[in-house]
Amino acid sequence: MANAIYYKRDYYTVNGSIHLRLFGRSFDNSTPGIEQEFQQVRTELPAGTADNFRFLQQVHDKNVLVFESATSAQSMIDKSNSLSPFYHLQEADAACTTQKQLPIGIRIADCIPLVMYDKHGKSIAGIHAGWRGLRAQIIEQTVQTLQKRFGVASQELMITIGPCIAQRSYETGPDVYQNFSAEFSRESDNAGKKLLDLNSIAVQQLLDLQVPAENITNLSTDTFADPRFFSHRAGDSGRNVFLIYKLPH
Q1: Which residue has the higher pLDDT, 150 or 36?
Q2: Treating both helix axes as pointing N-terminal to C-terminal, what angle do 198-208 and 138-150 enclose, rounded to 10 degrees?
């Protein structure tokens, strides 16, 4: 069975409608491969949009792809990827566009998925942020790209933070937690370990970029503990997908 949709939102703006879809574990508890995930997302997309969909090659860095058109997105397909060359764009952990019918999908299994659009519906973006991406400032890089390329102010952004591993479930060593302020970690039961709060780090980075708190929707769902979602730490090989796309009125 295909991945199940656990979150759907549709927003209507002067420049088109914005659509969010969150895919998690299927109801029969099966684990799809990436090609099954890809095809499932495509089946949920409307005509004229599905053919433009591709997954990013997420590498825990801060590269942001800018899709000027469906043609430019097609040109970013990495045909050297032996696993699934047709489905993968070049290495990046975020993408943005002003184009309608050009979906952005983020695959996650504990890392943070963020999707965003501006209040006027001019632009959309999707971000994959694990601890390495947060350290590399992938959120800041994406927001700055929206500002520089499309003239979108951070105060206009509407953000949804999808399911990720919660602090109570995310035990890390000093090689991880020391990259962040002490306020984002607390002691674990195991010596030398701490529990890191990725979600709060992401929220603080957004606030530091002048995104208003009231513009941030936080699903606050723990992928490790919630059986509806895949979790790498829990031993799953499947991935959740957070999708954002824009359509004409």
Answers
A1: 150
A2: 30
Domain boundaries, the chain: 8-238
22-70 pLDDT, tens digit per residue, is 999 876 666 667 777 788 888 889 988 888 887 888 999 999 999 886 6
Task: Give percent above pLDDT 70 in the chain.
Answer: 88
Whether the pTM exceeds 0.70: the reply is yes
Burial class (CB in 10 A: 0-12, 13-18, 19+), 204: middle
DSSP 3-state of 188 = coil
Q: Alpha-carbon distance 23 to 2, whole Å?
A: 9
8-238: which CATH topology? CNF1/YfiH-like putative cysteine hydrolases (3.60.140)
The pair phi, psi for residue 3, each rounded to 5°, is -55, 145
The label of the residue with tokens 């501006």 reads: 118
